[in-house]
């Protein structure tokens, strides 16, 4: 009997502990609303992550209590809690059209099939006070009001103002071109260039993508790898590495690079020469090591502050420049535009003054 009693007490304590660890809370964002306004009730349930949680489901326009209508419900993202517990929540949007104080009964949430109730809530619905005794104090609807001006009167001034702005813009553009002695229309191309190390790394990525490291054709692999390094060295250091032998390149770099970086590069070029000219066979791990050495050399010697964009301006010969006659004509055009703009401005100001007064 004692053993049975102890087992029953342990099971009861475990059940109570499990129930205590599950919590259900309900809150409302506003306890007072006007008729037709909305309030939001948040129903939260904290339980184990593996638990099955079922929130009460209300259809649109269903009443949670007589007089209080549920417009919608929205599931919120889960929030991590202590240990293996998570907090799940649903937001219910409520509204009412009756002026009274409502009692919202506890909402029931099922966790693993067991019901858990929240606390009850209250919501007061208010209406706007309307004085029905002194109806004469209310102003009726206003009549149709005339516009202070007619668009037909102002449209000529508006379009003349737009024309004036366009003429002023053209006049300024022609003046700047005349002042700088440049053609009226020029095209400047902005050419984006990759930095030398970016080009090299892009080609190395292509070598890796083509799986040339594991290819049986070692000659093609080392040819592409050394050509990539030669192009990088040529753009980075400014000498014609593509037309130089491996030893000449190493000798040229000796004055600027440390011996460790050159030692790895020297070994890479030596292996490549043996593969290309002596039919030397390499292992896959040796190919991998040489690829890593190439990447290390590029990373150690790259320059980040080189310009990536270059403005290519058109080269104009003397014959392309304006002749004296063309410049004189352009001056007359600019003068005529300035005079026309001034006259147009005077007319716009005068017409505006006449309409206002």
What does this structure look like?
- The protein has 357 residues and is of the alpha+beta class.
- 46% of the residues lie in helices and 20% in strands.
- The protein contains 8 helices and 14 strands.
- Strands 1, 3, 5, 6, 7 and 8 form a 6-stranded antiparallel beta sheet that branches.
- β10 (108-111) and β11 form a beta hairpin.
- The longest helix has 33 residues, at 324-356.
- The model is unreliable at 13-20 (pLDDT under 50).
Write a compact overview of the structure shown.
This protein is of the alpha+beta class.
Give me some keywords for this one.
8 helices; 6-stranded antiparallel beta sheet; 357 residues; 3 domains; alpha+beta; Immunoglobulin-like; 14 strands; 3-stranded mixed beta sheet
- Would you list the SSEs in sequence order as H and E? HEEEEEEEEEEEEHEHHHHHEH
Strand content: 15-25%
Unreliable spans are: 13-20
Helix content: 40-55%
Q: Note the gap between the termini.
A: 110 Å
What global shape is seen?
flat
Annotation field: number of helices:
8
Oligomer: single chain
The largest sheet, given as strand count, sense and whether it forms a barrel, is: 6 strands, antiparallel
Report the average pLDDT across residues: 80
Number of domains: 3
Radius of gyration: 42 Å
Strand segment tally: 14
The structure class reads alpha+beta
How would you summarize the topology of this molecule?
Blueprint: H1 2-21, E1 23-28, E2 32-34, E3 38-48, E4 53-54, E5 62-65, E6 68-75, E7 79-80, E8 85-95, E9 101-104, E10 108-111, E11 114-117, E12 121-126, H2 151-180, E13 189-192, H3 196-209, H4 218-237, H5 246-253, H6 259-278, H7 284-301, E14 309-312, H8 324-356
Parallel strand pairs: 2-12
Antiparallel strand pairs: 1-3, 3-8, 4-10, 5-6, 6-8, 7-8, 9-12, 10-11, 13-14
């Amino acid at each position: 009997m004692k053993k049975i009693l102890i087992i029953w007490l342990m099971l009861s304590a475990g059940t109570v502990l499990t129930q205590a660890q599950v919590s259900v809370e309900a809150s409302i964002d506003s306890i007072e609303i006007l008729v037709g306004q909305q309030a939001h009730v948040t129903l939260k349930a904290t339980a184990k992550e593996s638990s099955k949680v079922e929130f009460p489901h209300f259809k649109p326009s269903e009443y949670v209590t007589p007089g209080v209508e549920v417009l919608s419900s929205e599931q919120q993202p889960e929030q991590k809690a202590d240990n293996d517990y998570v907090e799940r929540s649903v937001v219910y949007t409520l509204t009412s059209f009756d002026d009274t104080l409502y009692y919202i009964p506890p909402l029931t949430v099922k966790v693993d099939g067991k019901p858990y109730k929240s606390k009850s809530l209250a919501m007061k619905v208010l209406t706007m006070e309307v004085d029905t005794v002194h109806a004469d104090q209310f102003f009726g609807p206003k009549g149709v009001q005339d516009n202070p001006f007619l668009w037909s009167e102002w449209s000529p001034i508006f379009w003349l103002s737009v024309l004036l702005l366009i003429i002023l813009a053209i006049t300024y553009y022609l003046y700047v071109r005349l002042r700088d002695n440049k053609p009226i229309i020029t095209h400047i191309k902005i050419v984006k260039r990759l930095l030398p190390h970016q080009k090299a790394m892009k080609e190395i990525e292509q070598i890796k993508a083509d799986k040339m490291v594991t290819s049986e054709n070692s000659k093609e692999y080392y040819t592409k790898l050394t050509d990539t390094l030669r192009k990088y060295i040529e753009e980075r250091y400014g000498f014609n590495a593509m037309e130089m032998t491996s030893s000449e390149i190493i000798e040229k770099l000796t004055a600027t690079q440390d011996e460790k970086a050159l030692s790895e590069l020297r070994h890479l070029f030596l292996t490549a020469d043996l593969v290309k000219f002596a039919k030397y066979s390499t292992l896959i791990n040796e190919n991998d090591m040489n690829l890593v050495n190439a990447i290390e050399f590029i990373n150690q010697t790259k320059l980040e502050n080189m310009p990536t964009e270059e403005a290519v301006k058109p080269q104009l010969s003397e014959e392309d420049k304006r002749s004296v006659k063309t410049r004189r004509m352009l001056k007359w055009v600019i003068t005529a535009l300035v005079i026309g703009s001034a006259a147009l401005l005077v007319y716009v100001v005068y017409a505006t003054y006449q309409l206002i007064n």
